[in-house]
Amino acid sequence: MNPIQELHSRFPDIVFTQQKTNDDVPTLWVDRFRVKEVLLYLKSEAEKPYRMLYDLAAIDERARRTPAAQPECDFSVVYHLLSFDRNSDIRLKVPLRGEYPSVSSITDIWENANWYEREVWDQFGINIENHPCMRRILNPPDWVGHPLRKEHPARATEMPGYTLDEDKQQREEEELQVDPESWGLTPRDGVEHMYLNFGPHHIGTHGLLRIILQMSGEQVTDSAVDIGWHHRGAEKMAERQTFHTYIPYTDRIDYLSGCHNNLPYLLTVEKISGIQVPDRAQVIRVLLCELFRLESHLVWFGTFATDVGAMSPVFYTFNDRERVFDIIEAITGGRMHPQWFRIGGVAADLPTGWDGLVRDFLSYFPARIEEYDRMIVRNSIFKQRTKGVGVYTIDSATEWGVTGPNLRSTGLDWDLRKKRPYSSYDQFDFEIPTATEGDCYARTLVRIEEMRQSVRIIEQALNNMPAGLYQSENRLAMPPRKADTMVAIETLINHFLSVSWGQPVPTGEAMVSVEMPKGNSGYHLISDGGNYAYRCHIRTPSFAHLQTIPMLSRGLLVSDLIAILGSLDYVLADVDR
Amino acid sequence: MDLLGLIKELGVIAAIAIAVLLFVLVVVLYLVLKLRWVIARIQSRLGPNRTGPWGVAQTVADALKLFQKEDIIPCGADRWLFTIAPAIVFVPAYLVYVVIPFGEGLTARSLNVGAIYISAISSIGVIGIIVAGWASNNKWSLLGAFRGASQLIAYEVPIILALAAPILITGTLDLDKIVQAQAGGFWRWNIFQGLPMLPLAFLILLIAGLAEINVAPFDIMEAESELVAGFNTEYSGMKFALFFLAEFAASFTLSAIIVTLFLGGYQPPLHVLGAQITAKLFGVIPLFSLISLFWFLFKCWVVVLGIMWIRSTLPRVRMDQLMNLSWKALIPAGLVNLLLTGAYVAFWMAK
Question: Can you give the residue ranges of every domain in chain B?
Answer without folding.
Answer: 1-68, 69-348
